[in-house]
């Protein structure tokens, strides 16, 4: 009898998981997509750099870690600096 209970305790969760995977539709539901979108927007609003100094520091960090090439860094830096001084024309990126 212990062997039967052991098999039930071990295999029943796997059976339940298998049934769940077969019955559940593929992909996220509309409600899950909305929750993911809301969470993403809240994350960006909370952690996105709010001033130009923070944006430049973030760009420098990304360049130093190799996530941005020198050209990408210069283009983004020009964009950030152009936002800082709207009356001033942005410098042409070097090619």
From TrEMBL:
> What are the annotated GO cellular component locations?
plasma membrane
- Domain (Cardiolipin synthase N-terminal) ranges: 2-24
Where is the protein found, in the record's own terms?
A: Cell membrane
Record key words, sorted? Cell membrane, Membrane, Transmembrane, Transmembrane helix
Q: How does it sit in the membrane?
A: Multi-pass membrane protein
Q: Where exactly are the transmembrane stretches of this chain?
A: none
Residues in SHOCT domain copies: 55-81
InterPro entries membership = CLS_N, SHOCT
Keyword Transmembrane helix in the entry? The reply is yes
Query: Pfam families attached here?
Result: PLDc_N, SHOCT
> What name does this protein carry?
SHOCT domain-containing protein
- Organism the protein comes from: Kocuria turfanensis
